[in-house]
Prior knowledge:
Strand content: 15-25%
Shape: elongated
Bound molecules: iron/sulfur cluster
Number of helices: 17
Number of strands: 15
Amino acid sequence: MNKPIDVADLDSGPLYVARKKIYPQSVSGTFRNVKWALMAFCLGVYYLLPFVRWDRGPNAPHQAVLVDFPNRRFYFFFIELWPQEVYYFTGLLIIAAMALFLMNAIGGRIWCGYLCPQTVWTDLFYAVERRIEGDRRARIYKDQHGLTVRRAFELAAKHGIWLFIAWWTGGAWVLYFADAPTLVTELATGEAPFVAYVWIGILTLTTYSLAGFMREQVCVYMCPWPRIQAALTDEWALNVAYRHDRGEPRTSTRKAEQLRAKGLPAGDCIDCHQCVAVCPTGVDIRDGSQLGCIQCGLCIDACDSVMRKIGRPPRLIGYDTEINLERRIQGKPPIYRILGPRTVIYAAVIAITGAIMSYTLLTRVSLHISVLHDRNPLFVSLTDGSIRNAHTVHVLNHRNESRTVRLEVDGISSPQVQVVGLEAATAGIPLISVGPDQTRELRGLITVPPAMKLDRSTPLTFRITDVADGETAIATDHFVIR
Ligand code: SF4
Ligand code: SF4
């Protein structure tokens, strides 16, 4: 339930409020453990993935995930994408967007609270800060008192470790764009390309400033996702929420016991502010759902531990829907609807896009041909009266092994097909060899005898066939006689 907005406050309030530094307190519990586990998983994947090897044969890189700009390839385990297949990225973007929407429809800002890089790295930087400077109270105390030798040492150690993590983060990023073990050696010996050092520098600075200093301000002021999410969410989505029906009226433990003994209403909230103290964005969730809440669940852990201490049931703060918050106030039992229209639509779009991408990946051909007719001259009359057309032919071999293909032309009966500078032919049919993962450009000459009657422009089909396995590819063009 949202706190009502006082119009008088809007009229008289300042237009700018300086940032109040936040000192999140450590907490333990279910959601904290989930966050630790996801942090370890995300960071582990990010830092180690470039070193995972994947055997693609002798003529291809052995790095499982690689963006190979010089050779214009993207490798992802068994998938290899060429520049002309960028539409797969469109499919991936659609799936990623729908997955975010689906998460939102089911569990609110799961992405923000657990998986977003800003959350993960900020959490890591907070862990370092806590380890060196102490928990919330100690950090507040140290910030309010002067610089001592010990304090200077702590600050130097904290910023040194932050910079090391930031540098490591930038270093891991560039490893996705070159063979990781080789690039590590080159970086260590100062022989890496200059652009690698530039990117490491940029990412070191951005990580250090975003996770070390800007922290919750990125979520509250810079990121568009909370605004988009506010438009997407509905009353059925699970969000971190304070149960007003149980918590109010707030009072102390002892007073609550006295009130209950007299049969008078007393809330479970003892106004201890533990839920606010652990919050990484400084939000008081008891004021209702708000943009600053990234829904990390840490206030649930904090409040659960308070409830355990005072002997009251847990989940005074918990994941709940707007509908249930209202129903509880009205004394009605909660209801849940995970499979609503939004969840079904998002899941269906993900499934359909995934199925289309899988089908096209599994059935895609590894052989391509493209043909371009000469513009000038369109045709040449030879001395014996026969007519010749010239075409530029590109043969693309997407496999990591050499292949030999037959070139045949349909559309005209018995044309003479020649390929300039070709090394082999069988029964007059040109044989073209193409190296592994290469494109070969050739000049094809099609000649028809003088007696042949043809239209001004006759459609032609150029067909290449792999002599080893029979895979074919075709391209169309025309034979022009005037
Ligand atoms: S931690 Fe629980 S009991 Fe303490 S103020 Fe927050 S909601 Fe109330
Ligand atoms: S209010 Fe609770 S769930 Fe929201 S950001 Fe703060 S600690 Fe996380």
